[in-house]
Amino acid sequence: MILKISNTVVVFDLDDTLYNEIDFLKSAYKAIACKLEKDNWQFLYAHMLSIYRNKKDVFGFLSERYLVEKKCLLNEYREHVPKLKPFGHVIAFLKKIKQMGGKVAIITDGREKTQKNKLNSLGIDKYLDLLVVSETIGTEKPNENNYKIVESCYPNHDYIYIGDNYKKDFITPNIRKWTTIGIIDNGLNVHNNFFKFSSSEKHIPSYFINSYSEILLINN
Q: What is the pLDDT of residue 146?
């Protein structure tokens, strides 16, 4: 597909849009396992992943076995410094937007410290013109406030939104007449919920892509 970038803000979701969120979970689980079982962390890490895959309470299990408060474990999960890699072609795509004079923004739900740690690890922070985090502004998607912030910072622009969560990502940008693009689940997405919302027009983006390499950016 072809996108015009002149006088345009390209707005991204973060988790499962620019990288696989499951990689953050694995990174956090490994950090916690190494802390609790320094000499046998691999066994504990495998155990934690199995509990998660079976939709059981990982932190409840750890709290009971190691006599650690769940609150402390959750803080460790959220505040650890992860090791993450962006999806293929993401960095080249961001560089191209900037080279062509476009703006790059992210609208993400979550805690500010957690999301900033992710961006730093991914090497994406340096390309950002605007970061909107739900914890900081007090509202979560699909609240229109999260999207109006972009419009108020960059008025009289065109807006492109790229996301993955069909429950909440596209409702408001569709209403506000933004161009919306859904990145198709590569089989690892945490929110694999497309089938639940596929019959509701307001939840569905205008376009779908498998990879950022499918988008050709032009100036006019």
A: 98
